[in-house]
Specification:
Low-confidence stretches: none
Strand order of the largest sheet: 3-4-2-1-7-9-10-8
Mean pLDDT: 96
Strand content: 15-25%
Bound molecules: adenosine-5'-diphosphate, aspartic acid, magnesium ion
Distance between the termini: 39 Å
Number of strands: 16
Shape: globular
Structural class: alpha/beta
Radius of gyration: 24 Å
Largest sheet: 8 strands, mixed
């Protein structure tokens, strides 16, 4: 059994929903995971923002516009009146629910219920379309098996037990359908796996059923060797090691959610990235690949802040690093990059939520300086240190750009460089020119 996940663009119009149904119909008894239609989750966020601000008119307008879009989709999707009626009723119920939040109290709890509607709607549309096509599809609701524990981590035991039971209850299905992104928390309340989290759903399901493969279907033919939003002429990478894919996803390659790799890696389940718009393209296979002694791809992570602590008095004393890191731990802020010298240490963080408090605490150990609006450029590949020349190539490519920090040797898979946001585009393009042409 495989898990086939389709992202927002892949189910973004009535025609795309039809294409996805045709794509999965004769491929065996697999589990199909869907995101919300593209743009829907953003609209639901917008509606929630209006409700937080008690702007009922704004919320109503956005809800009406979204509902009108779904009415048009239903009209185009189904050929029979019977299915148009069934889908209209089911989607109408979802919109009644969204409208029911027009109450004085609106909290994170209500927002999560609203955000869950996108995936509930897209899977309902697909379910009825498949039924109309005569496909023996069974819906396995994510809210019945996808759960997080008290630490907000997936409750893998619960997921596995519940999911197996649901599959066993429906042995005659030719296909299973479920929602990405949405789940319940440890208290049974509706929750989600963070924006872009449908990839994580697919991977958690893959791990739970020990799937043969996890396929992530999206709007591009695999992981490209650089970010196609900023660099022209990027090309798909045929194969990636789990570790390489994890680095790229974490450092900004949006095609894959950073959390998605781990469950697949732990269970050694290959992940294939494929293009719904070009299903024959080979895409990218992520698995325990052999070393290739090559640089595979570049990615960039935005909104990075660099913090430097300088202290000639303290650094050589043992325990200094621990004290510095403890401050970040206390403020629940994770560190991405680290560079040390005899007189100071620089670290980077990807959010400034607790920056003020962190700086105040760090000042006890020395002089603190901060650089905002930085970007981590991450070069990924089989970069074992005995292989010669890779770091020289990378640094050479960026010789005309001021580089604030370099991190190499933390793993066999990446070199990270910290540059200013205004140099990001140039840096990505220079690296592509040097490494992939
Ligand atoms: P989905 O909605 O299917 O989950 P996403 O928008 O999350 O799709 O991810 C696909 C997008 O990721 C592509 O359209 C592309 O713009 C972007 N992207 C960023 N970096 C890369 C990369 N290295 N390779 C491929 N796509 C990338
Ligand atoms: N629909 C959710 C989002 O837009 C989850 C996903 O697409 O993966 O973030
Ligand atoms: Mg995505």
């Amino acid at each position: 059994m495989k898990v086939l996940k389709f992202g927002g663009t892949s189910v973004g119009t009535a025609q795309r929903i039809k294409d996805v149904a045709a794509l999965v119909a004769n491929r065996g008894k697999n589990i199909v995971v869907l995101s919300a239609m593209s743009g829907t989750t953003n609209s639901l966020v917008e509606i929630s923002d209006y409700l937080y601000k008690k702007n009922v008119t704004g919320a109503k307008e956005t809800i009406n516009a979204l509902e009108a879009k779904y009415s048009r989709t239903i009209e185009e999707l189904y050929s029979s009146e019977e299915f148009k009626k069934a889908a209209t009723e089911a989607i109408g119920e979802r919109f009644d629910f969204i409208r029911s939040f027009n109450k004085p109290i609106f909290t994170l709890f209500e927002e999560k219920e609203i955000l869950a509607q996108g995936e509930l709607i897209s899977t309902t549309l697909m379910y009825y379309y498949m039924k109309e096509q005569g496909i023996n599809v069974v819906m396995i609701p994510a809210l019945d098996f996808m759960r997080t524990d008290k630490n907000a981590e997936p409750d893998t035991q619960y997921i596995q037990t519940k999911l197996s039971a649901l599959l066993e209850e429906n042995p005659d299905a030719s296909l299973y359908l479920t929602q990405g992104y949405i789940c319940r928390n440890a208290y049974g309340e509706i929750d989600n796996l963070q924006r872009g989290g449908s990839d994580y759903t697919a991977s958690l399901i893959g791990a739970a059923i020990n799937a043969e493969e996890i396929e992530i279907w999206t709007d591009i033919d695999g992981m490209h060797n650089n970010d196609p939003r900023f660099v022209e002429g990027t090309k798909p990478v045929k194969e990636l090691h789990f570790e390489e894919a994890a680095e790229l996803a974490y450092f900004g390659a949006k095609i894959l959610h950073p959390t998605c790799v781990l469950p697949a890696k732990l269970n050694n389940i290959p992940v294939r990235l494929l293009n719904t718009m070009d299903p024959e393209a080979p895409g990218t296979l992520i698995f325990n690949s052999r070393p290739t002694h090559s640089i595979k791809a570049v990615a960039a992570k935005d909104n990075i802040t660099a913090i430097k602590i300088k202290s000639s008095r303290m650094l050589l004393a043992y325990g200094f690093m621990r004290k510095v890191f403890e401050i970040f731990e206390t403020h629940r802020t994770s560190i991405d990059m680290v560079a040390t010298s005899e007189v100071g240490v620089s670290v980077t963080v990807d959010n400034e939520r607790n920056l003020h408090a962190i700086i105040e605490d760090l000042k006890k150990f020395g002089t603190v300086s901060v650089d905002h609006d930085m970007v981590i450029i991450c070069v990924v590949g089989d970069l074992e240190w005995q292989n010669r020349g890779f770091e020289a190539e990378v640094v050479n490519a960026l010789k005309d750009i001021p580089v604030r920090m370099i991190s190499y040797g933390g793993s066999n898979y990446n070199i990270s460089l910290l540059v200013r946001k205004c140099d990001k585009l140039k840096a990505l393009n220079l690296l592509s020119d040097r490494l992939f042409k």
